[in-house]
Amino acid sequence: MYSVVKTSSLALCFIGFIFVSTRAEFFTAISDVEPLLETHIKIIEDLEEYIEKEEKRISILKRHLKVYQTEHEKAMEDIPNYLGNPINAFTLIKRLTTDLEFIEKKIEIGTEYIKNISIISDDDYIQYPSLEDLTGAAQALTRLQETYHLDVNDLAEGILNGVIYSTSMNSDDCYELGKVLYNEKDYKNALAWMQLALKKYPNDDELYNFTDVDILEYISFCHYLLGDLKNALNWTKKLLILDPFHDRAMGNIPHYRDALFKKQYDLSNKIRGVSPGKNQDTGQPTVDTNEEAEKPKEPTKYEKERKVYESLCRGEMEIPRAISKRLTCRYLTENHPFLRLAPIKMEYVYLSPDIVVFHDVLNEDEIFEIMMMARPRFRRATVHDPKTGELVPAHYRISKSAWLKDEESPFIENLSRRIADFTGLSMVSAEELQVVNYGIGGHYEPHFDFARKQESAFENFNGNRIATVLFYMSDVAQGGATVFTELGLSVFPQRGDAVFWLNLHPSGEGDLATRHAACPVLRGSKWVCNKWIHQGGQELIKPCDLEYQSEGIIRPLPRPLMKKTFR
């Protein structure tokens, strides 16, 4: 923008000189020509200033280009490994959203022209992520940070669980991440990233579309929104040292001081036993006997489960000795005559309810075929709304999924037949094969696969979901475990294996112990496919038990490990 304006002004300047020269007749006297030398030096100075600014602008663009080229070369060396790193995924999306906007401002034509000419034939075209993608990637990083107890300083240096996987994040990366989290009202994590942005800011020689003053303003207001008035005031004072006439900061100082004085005054009264709102000038203070206010809040059911869930994701819990000592492995030869010729390796990882892992039940050709069929059909994964029964997207399930029918491919048909063989169940009322690829920090919070009585799901199916078969189509470098929060069980993905469990008691009641979750993927790409089998067609295979089983069965509690790291 600057170059266009400056060029125009220079052009107008030249026009003006031509106009003056025709009127003033400089050539008729040398004394009249001498002042033109001052005009001449003015043109030189203007051109030098213009060229200097253009060179600076080009230099900035070249530095951004170098970053794009360097990161692209790294990505092309091993695409799955590169994109399997959540830090790389975030910075890639950032470079194609906010960084691209900054670059557009630095060039005259802008990348809208590039976007328009980038469309090519055969339905292949350049795709650009949106700010929603940037927000999702930022939230994924904080989800990983909180679930796996990652240090924010390590994350910024490209370190995941003690291993360096990527280039360090610069001040701009940290700033954009903090800004996104601030806009999502995640002030605690926004503050941490803004402080890192400030720490890295002096070490960055690149010019960004923000200054250290902008960072300080975010830091001070995050402190204020988190109730830390003292730090909010102190950081605002630091801001005013750099920019003494900053309007918002000048207005916030008296506000923070008044709020801090009121907070300290109320605290003083509380210590003296004076109830807020009473007349403190009577000399007869009222003692506050509300002891309930002093007691720590009891964790909610969600918070308790969340703590167990995160511990299981980190691999910090083990099942009770009373159960683990009875777990066995064996070859499955029953259910179908073919299994006598090709028995399947099965491992019990829990008893009552039985959670079984079938090893090597999905081969490489099948995995490849299923992935290729699913890719063009991927849509944002949905969940059943318990009130309406409709399928809707949810923040607690981040992945994309596709559904494949048996008749579409011999691979899918053979897989359904194999599921029937090793589960011993009928596929008459089974759902289509669902294929899922988890996104950046992809997860699925604790849930049941079966529909509870108050829910209106599966009305178009023959009965409730009696069983789940979950296939792992990829190894996951770190994270991504399937965890059962009521059992204290963690099952980590192993390519080609399948986990199987029954969701219902023999009475048809849902088994609450099967509540499970998919942990966030810390590093790698997690692919799974699953088959949900319904009650229809199982009447003679799994007949109902006349004895009623209640949903709440008391089981031994899992115990935490002294020290164990997740995979």
TrEMBL record:
It comes from the Eukaryota. The keyword Transmembrane does not apply. Residues 271-301 are annotated as: Disordered. Its EC number is 1.14.11.2. Residues 429-535 form the Fe2OG dioxygenase domain. SMART domains: P4Hc (SM00702), TPR (SM00028). Its main location: endoplasmic reticulum. Residues 37-71 form a coiled coil. Residues 292-301 have a biased composition (Basic and acidic residues). Belongs to the P4HA family. PANTHER family: PROLYL 4-HYDROXYLASE ALPHA SUBUNIT, PROLYL 4-HYDROXYLASE SUBUNIT ALPHA-2. This is procollagen-proline 4-dioxygenase. The lineage of its organism: Eukaryota, Metazoa, Ecdysozoa, Arthropoda, Hexapoda.
